[in-house]
Automatic annotation (TrEMBL):
The protein's name: Mitochondrial integral membrane protein-like protein
Chain spans, region Disordered: 1-74
Phylogenetic classification of the source organism: Eukaryota, Fungi, Dikarya, Ascomycota, Pezizomycotina
Record field: transmembrane: 92-114, 126-148, 155-177, 183-201, 230-256
InterPro entries: AB_hydrolase_fold, DUF2417
Sequence ranges of Basic and acidic residues compositional bias: 38-64
Domain of life: Eukaryota
Regions of compositional bias (Polar residues) in chain numbering: 1-17
Swiss-Prot/TrEMBL keywords: Membrane, Transmembrane, Transmembrane helix
SUPFAM superfamilies assigned: alpha/beta-Hydrolases
Length: 559
């Protein structure tokens, strides 16, 4: 065997049986070219199967095209910024931040319907949700178009970051907005700002890595873009421009909210429910006595609109002409000057909040309850829980418990939720302020109050529990309502004529107690009966009778 090896070596030395390998073309180049190409010389195991090369393929294992000058083609998949560990790490972190933002988005979405412990804010919660949506949008653009950096994309994202910084300043510097948004809102806008800056930094690092790898592997930075890359840059830029428009609208809405926060109110905000939120309570007039007994105070409960809009004006007129000596009113959670309550929130919870606020203010009654529309549900529950203090009830076109399904329909709930989601954009509010001369009063408790996120959230809360929790509460209240309490019902003639079921339920409410003073159907009055002269006249006339009836019942009770 040794002789065979020797023969073999001898043949090789003489060149009789083995042919020498022809010189590689790289040997004909100069030394610099030879050294640069040597690193790209393919493996001699050319008969082994190969996968298609990609940016992770080792360069020594890649086949080199003939007549190559030692550099890769710019379109070669190996020419990628992913070769740098910093670029790969930033992509992984971007995906991680996207996952975190999505989990926070889910939590905020749930909190609109059910407030988790510690996550309730006194505001609507829609702004927090909007900022998180914006964060997810920025991170998605950065993730999808990660490998296609563009200067235009960095500029548009920088504009977004500047606007978000302005939003942070507004939220933190305006006490009322800071109180409404709470730590959840502040954290959401700060996170949105930080992620916008991160997207700018990521795009810049990828651009640097792309240039570095192109110079290293192709000999120059590639200035051309493929059609696919141009489409990606265009789509990413268009999306970020849309984000800019969204943030501009949100910033404008915050500015309007800051302006509205300066509106002075009559009365006080009282913390209730373990200091989770505050409700607005105000009283007009002084406590008076007649024949040694305290005169009743009228307690107003609004319907579907904030009470200050026009219902309170009627009560003030009654006070000025001497029909009543004193009245108090409040804003249900989410209305006018009151904060939003945690979700879910029922009519009975509103009645409890009112009771607590009045107690903290030192208000003890006796009360004559005047309510309208859906507010009559809250007023009836309050009456059943304060029977000794309630000496009269007047309801104006009240909602019946059997009709609560009308405001609890899923379609209405979805519409309210959708309006709430887009409420931070404030398109209608901004247009009203800029072009229609809408005032702070209009937006806080007037004709445009329905456009605010707080109001929409309150309506959504009523929708979610109207036909179950609230209905059960008011049905129980009816069973324990004092039977001798004087009762006045004033109904809308327009509503009665167009809805026979509404008429039947209005009639049923006249049997709420056994002491019906009057039931009036005001012929030409709409649902808000007090908005017509005839309606105001009838209401004031019946209020005088109710005050006399309440005094009579109180005298008989004392005897």
């Amino acid at each position: 065997m040794s002789s065979m090896w020797k023969g073999g070596n001898q043949d090789n030395q003489n060149g009789d049986q083995l042919t020498a390998e022809p010189p590689h073309p790289i040997a004909q180049d100069d030394g610099a070219s030879r050294s640069s190409r040597r690193s790209y010389e393919p493996s001699r195991r050319s008969h082994e199967p190969r996968d298609e090369p990609h940016e992770r393929t080792r360069l020594l294992d890649r086949p080199r095209p003939p007549n190559s000058d030692g550099y890769l083609d710019p379109d070669d998949p190996a020419v990628s910024p992913y070769n740098l560990w910093t670029v790969r790490a930033m992509r992984y972190l971007t995906i991680l931040f996207l996952i975190i933002s999505f989990l926070w988005w889910v939590l905020l979405l749930v909190s609109i319907f059910v407030s988790p412990p510690g996550l309730h804010t006194r505001g609507s919660g829609f702004f927090d949700f909007a900022y998180t949506c914006l964060t997810i949008g920025n991170l998605l653009v950065a993730t999808i178009f990660f490998i296609t950096p563009a200067k235009g994309l960095r500029i548009t994202t920088a504009i977004i970051a500047v606007l978000l910084a302005i939003d942070m300043i507004i939220i933190v510097s305006v006490p009322r907005i800071r109180l409404e948004e709470g730590w959840v809102g502040i954290a959401s806008v700060v996170w949105a700002f930080v992620m916008a800056v991160w997207c700018i930094l990521t795009d810049r690092v990828v651009a640097y890595g792309k240039k570095e790898e192109e110079e290293r592997l192709t000999g120059r930075a590639e200035t051309r873009r493929t059609l696919k890359e141009w489409v990606a840059v265009l789509v990413a830029t268009v999306l970020t421009v849309v984000f800019i428009i969204i943030v501009i609208l949100m910033t404008g809405t915050l500015g309007v909210r800051a302006r509205d926060a300066s509106l002075k109110m009559y009365g006080d905000r009282i913390l209730v429910d373990g200091d989770k939120y505050a409700v607005h309570v105000a009283c007009v007039g002084n406590v008076s006595e007649t024949n040694g007994s305290k005169d009743p105070t009228v307690l107003l409960e609004a319907g579907e609109q904030p009470l200050e809009y026009d219902f309170e004006h009627w009560a003030y007129a009654a006070y000025k002409n001497g029909t009543i000596s004193r009245y108090c009113y409040w804003d249900r959670p989410g209305y006018a000057f009151s904060d939003n309550a945690p979700s879910p929130h029922s009519a009975g919870m509103s009645a409890d909040a009112l009771s607590e606020a009045l107690a903290k203010q030192g208000e003890q009654g006796p009360w004559i309850l005047i309510s309208a529309g859906t507010g009559s549900i809250v007023s009836r529950i309050f009456s059943s829980r304060h029977m000794k203090q309630v000496t009269g009830i007047m309801m104006v076109d009240p909602m019946h418990e059997d009709l609560l399904h009308r405001i609890a329909s899923p379609s209405r709930g979805f519409i309210l939720w959708a309006w709430g989601i887009i409420s931070p954009l404030g398109t209608v509010r901004l247009a009203g302020a800029l072009f229609k001369g809408r005032t702070r009063e209009d937006r806080v408790y007037g004709r445009n109050a329905y456009q605010s996120g707080k109001y929409i959230k309150a309506q959504l809360q009523e929708n979610l529990v109207a036909d179950n929790l609230s209905k059960n509460e008011v049905s129980s209240a009816r069973n324990i309502q004092s039977s001798d309490t004087p009762l006045v019902i004033v109904s809308s003639g327009i509503e009665v004529r167009k809805d026979s079921e509404w008429e039947r339920k209005q009639k049923d409410l006249t049997t709420l107690t056994e002491n019906l003073v009057s039931w009036d159907v005001v012929n030409k009055a709409p649902h808000m009966v007090w908005s017509t002269l005839e309606g105001r006249t009838v209401m004031e006339k019946r209020l005088k009778q109710l005050v006399k009836a309440a005094a009579k019942v109180k005298t008989e009770a004392e005897e």
